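Quick one: examine the sequence and fold tokens given here and explain what the tokens say about the fold. Here goes:
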Amino acid sequence: MRILIIEDDRDAASYLIKAFRETGHIADHAADGLDGYAMAEPGDYDVLVVDRMLPKLDGLSLIRSLREQSVETPVLILSALGQVDDRVKGLRAGGDDYLPKPYSFSELLARVEVLARRRSVAPSGEPTTYRIDDLVLDRLSHRVTRSGQEILLQPREFRLLEYLMKNAGQVVTRTMLLEHVWDYHFDPQTNVIDVHVSRLRAKIDKGFERPLIHTVRGSGYIIRASDGSEG
């Protein structure tokens, strides 16, 4: 799980970073609201832990701005303001959970894990697992394996692979990927798609006998098994 901690108190931030990393998670840090917004806006994190009182851009304004940009990353708000009205304001601003200070890390970790699980639950009617040849993607656990070997992906790489596997056997254009993986509804004339596909291909295909991700020149990409076993 990849977590962004947006907290201006250096001691508090250092404690959280250390604690999350010791429990096996990736933890990044932003010391003010503007930096936090810039890091969170691409949507690459599984959960945001946001202090309410931040310099440059306060926590509630940061969350509202993210929601206005359709960033749906779950947010847990930390605050010394723990009255009912304070919690209600935090949730109405777009927060998903609210934990007053002081808190225990075990409770914070449990709440963060719940938020991450909620995000990963598949919509009704969609499969929770995609399989192509010996490649398996589990949408609930965010786990990818090939020939039983676990492949570690960044959140954006996971979403890219998920979309390709969801459309297995079909050509997926760069515009489709921009709209469904990056949420850009235009072509910004950038090679960001090619760069990410190249990185993904290095993780998925390198060292295996049969490549699964293919470039369709002039069109986009397709993921398929050599024997057609997609599902």
Observations:
- The first strand starts at residue 2 and ends at 6.
